[in-house]
Amino acid sequence: MSDDRTAEANGIRASYDETETERVLEFEAAGEGSAIRPGATAAIAQNREGYAMLKVRPTADGDELERYYGFDMALDHAAELLGVSQRDLPVPPAAEDLGM
C-alpha cells in the first residue's frame, strides 16, 4: 500500500481515518500466522485535537474496552486482540503521532 494512511505487514492491515470527532487507527488480521486470529479486528481512537486518552475498541465503532495515556500501551492491547505481538502491528505514517 502506498499512501500515508494505510499499511500492511505481518498479516495485519492497518488504516487511519479522521471523523468529525476522532482520529481512528483500525487493524484487521488479514493473513495467517501462528497466533493471528483470522478476521480479528481492533481500533485505537483519540479525539481530533489529539490531547485525550487513547481508547481501544474491538472495532472502530465498537464499545470502548480500555483507555491509555500512551500509544505503546494502546498498541499492546490492540495486538493482544489480534493475537500478535505489538511489534507486528504496522502503523501508517499519518497515525504515528497518536497519543502525543
Structure description:
By secondary structure, the protein is mainly beta. It has one domain. 12% of the residues lie in helices and 33% in strands. It has one helix and six strands; from the N terminus they run E-E-E-E-E-E-H. It has one helix at 71-82; strands at 6-9, 12-18, 22-29, 41-47, 54-57, 66-68. It has a six-stranded antiparallel beta sheet with strand order 1-2-3-4-5-6, with helices on one face. It is globular. It starts with 5 loop residues before the first strand and ends in an 18-residue tail after the last helix. The mean pLDDT is 90.
Provide tags for this entry.
100 residues
Fold blueprint:
Blueprint: E1 6-9, E2 12-18, E3 22-29, E4 41-47, E5 54-57, E6 66-68, H1 71-82
Antiparallel strand pairs: 1-2, 2-3, 3-4, 4-5, 5-6
